[in-house]
From TrEMBL:
Coiled coil: none annotated. The lineage of its organism: Bacteria, Bacillati, Actinomycetota, Actinomycetes, Kitasatosporales. This is GntR family transcriptional regulator. It holds the Pfam family GntR. It comes from the Bacteria. Keywords: DNA-binding, Transcription, Transcription regulation. SMART domains: HTH_GNTR. Residues 12-80 form the HTH gntR-type domain.
Amino acid sequence: MFAYRIDRRSGVATYVQLVQQTKQALRLGLLEPGDKLPTAREVVEATAINPNTVLKAYRELEREGLVEARRGLGTFVTRSLGSAPADSPLRGELSRWTERARAAGLERGDVEALFAAVLEEQFRSEGDSA
């Protein structure tokens, strides 16, 4: 079953972290249409966050058309995103690059900033705002 991880030091709102992690799982094929998301109670028990935070995230995902709440049954994925499977050879290349970056003394924030800058450069011409 899919599990959320909350980073309380990130400065990112908890519900946004849930939305982002769900979208990432959809992009990587870890969640697929028909899959059931953890119940709010399961997320609360695993992460010690407020149930309303979970419900807010799930409502946002539903508003975006990614999930559907079925009364008495749970919340289910309705569509996937992207096409970057978790076992892609590109993931291995990125993992090795990240290892080299860490070995060179870069911290997580440095790597994130560098990666974001390169993404911006590469996708600017395509008009991608993601």
